[in-house]
């Protein structure tokens, strides 16, 4: 393993491409007429494709190393690929929604910066890098949430910002406490110093840093912003915010637990297990009677954090499936959740579940894509999330968390109720709209083509990842 003080720029090519693409898109957008902003989107897509190729090449050719507080290993490689795919989908969805907008190019810049911060979160092997990555993964998303300047977006952005500022301070406080306890911020040195440090100081610092990362993941106790942001932000922004940052935050939480906290005196497994139980249960309870499609997906996102935290709870133990299970589940969730949001983006006028009534009879392929993604979020075979859940459950069992696996299984079955509330109306005949309120009438407007194509592709990818789960897990 190379020294932490040496920065090898070759190892950071994907991150460098993202940063340069953000600067280039900002400059190009400033000098491009509004009617030609699509050229900025085209350049961003090209840059993301190049960064994705660089990330795949680095995964094949390089081993584990640490570069200036940033670890490049299997977790970082997997997160790079997943985040780049996620932001590429988000840019395409945003192109459908923001085309011709006076600040179209700025939306792509903010997406790129948020993606860069997310990757930095996942690779951080120093608490100072973690804190800087937290800010980079947060501040651009506050602006994106209020991008439309409407009442819902403004309210969501304000709540998002206030919650982020509060838990950002909590995370920085935790960083200071762990620095005081261990005398350093590097993960390797902290792992050796914390076992001899005051237990109360280590516990306070660990809880504070964990709370900050759970804000980025959208899990309890930092979950309060998720429903309002998902409902109020533009649909492509909601898709990105509830999906992509979760990948970096949970990967960062796993690395922190596995390399620093779990070997120490604290019961890391119990802390994460309690947070997992709270997230999956409260998320499900909040989703049960939602009538707004976006709010249902928001509470679903909270509950998914609970299942993902089961792998984090197994960090540092003997559960060999913990890390590959987490990484595969994150990729599966990315594809499946973005697929569901792509349907929402394709039908921007459909806000309530009732407005999707009869969708199968009008747009059968779009309806089937939504069915695959919603059943995928439940964890129905042969979708990718099913394999991810199964692997994570196995890791939790290996870690001795039998009670948590039983609770997760109960929550999984219970979640079927609210997903079916969305699925079943798709196949019913659309009612006669005479005399019906505008909120209940099925939407008959044409579907957006790019979003529809994205929904079909992501639904197919969710199924393909489930079928090819064995080789993919071997890579992880």
In short:
This protein has helices at residues 13-30, 38-61, 74-98, 104-123, 127-145, 151-182, 187-193, 199-217, 226-232, 235-241, 244-261, 268-287, 293-313, 322-346, 359-362, 364-378, 384-398, 402-426, 449-467, 469-475, and strands at 65-67, 70-72. The chain has 476 residues and is an all-alpha fold. It folds into two domains: 1-266; 267-476, no CATH class.
Explain what this protein looks like in three dimensions.
With 476 residues, the protein is mainly alpha-helical. It has two domains: 1-266; 267-476, no CATH class. The protein is built from 20 helices and two strands. It is globular and about 65 Å long.
How would you summarize the topology of this molecule?
Blueprint: H1 13-30, H2 38-61, E1 65-67, E2 70-72, H3 74-98, H4 104-123, H5 127-145, H6 151-182, H7 187-193, H8 199-217, H9 226-232, H10 235-241, H11 244-261, H12 268-287, H13 293-313, H14 322-346, H15 359-362, H16 364-378, H17 384-398, H18 402-426, H19 449-467, H20 469-475
Antiparallel strand pairs: 1-2
Helix pairs in contact: 1-2, 1-4, 2-3, 3-4, 3-10, 3-11, 3-14, 3-19, 4-5, 4-11, 5-6, 6-7, 6-8, 6-9, 7-11, 8-11, 9-10, 9-13, 10-14, 11-13, 11-14, 12-13, 12-18, 13-14, 13-17, 13-18, 14-16, 14-17, 14-19, 16-18, 16-19, 17-19
């Amino acid at each position: 393993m190379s020294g932490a003080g040496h920065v090898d720029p070759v190892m950071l090519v994907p991150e460098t491409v993202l940063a340069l693409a953000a600067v280039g898109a900002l400059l190009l957008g400033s000098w491009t007429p509004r009617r030609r902003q699509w050229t900025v989107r085209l350049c961003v897509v090209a840059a993301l494709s190049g960064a994705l190729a660089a990330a795949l090449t680095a995964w094949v050719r390089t081993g584990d190393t640490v570069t200036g507080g940033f670890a490049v290993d299997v977790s970082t490689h997997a997160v790079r690929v997943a985040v780049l795919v996620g932001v590429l989908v988000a840019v395409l969805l945003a192109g459908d929604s923001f085309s011709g907008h006076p600040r179209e190019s700025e939306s792509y810049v903010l997406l790129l910066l948020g993606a860069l911060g997310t990757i930095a979160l996942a690779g951080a092997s120093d608490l100072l890098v973690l804190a800087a990555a937290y800010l980079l993964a947060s501040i651009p998303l506050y602006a994106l949430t209020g991008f439309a300047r409407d009442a819902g977006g403004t309210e969501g952005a304000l709540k998002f910002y206030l919650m982020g500022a509060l838990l950002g301070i909590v995370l920085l406080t935790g960083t200071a406490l762990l620095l005081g306890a261990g005398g350093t911020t590097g993960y390797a040195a902290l792992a050796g110093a914390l076992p001899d440090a005051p237990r109360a100081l280590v516990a306070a610092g660990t809880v504070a840093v964990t709370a900050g990362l759970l804000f980025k993941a959208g899990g309890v106790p930092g979950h309060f912003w998720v429903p309002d942001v998902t409902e109020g932000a533009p649909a492509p922004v909601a898709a990105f915010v509830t999906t992509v940052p979760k990948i970096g935050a949970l990967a960062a939480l796993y690395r922190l637990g596995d390399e620093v906290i779990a070997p120490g005196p604290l019961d890391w497994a119990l802390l994460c297990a309690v947070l997992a139980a709270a997230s999956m249960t409260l998320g499900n309870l909040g989703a049960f009677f939602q009538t707004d499609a976006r709010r249902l997906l928001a509470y679903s996102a909270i509950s998914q954090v609970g299942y993902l935290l089961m792998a984090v709870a197994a960090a540092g133990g003997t559960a060999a499936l913990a890390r590959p299970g987490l990484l595969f589940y994150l990729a599966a969730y990315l594809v499946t959740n973005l697929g569901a949001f792509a349907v929402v983006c394709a039908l921007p006028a459909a806000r309530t579940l009732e407005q999707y009534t009869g969708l199968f009879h009008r747009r059968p392929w779009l309806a089937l894509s939504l069915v695959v993604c919603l059943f995928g979020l439940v964890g129905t075979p042969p979708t990718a999330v099913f394999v991810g859940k199964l692997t994570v459950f196995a890791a939790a069992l290996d870690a001795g968390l039998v009670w948590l696996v039983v609770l997760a299984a109960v929550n999984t079955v219970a979640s079927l109720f609210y997903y079916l509330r969305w699925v079943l109306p798709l196949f019913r005949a659309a009612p006669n709209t005479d005399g019906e309120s505008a909120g209940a009438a099925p939407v008959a407007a044409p579907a957006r083509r790019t979003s529809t194509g994205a929904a079909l592709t992501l639904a197919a990818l969710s199924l393909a990842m489930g079928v090819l789960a064995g080789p993919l897990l071997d890579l992880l």
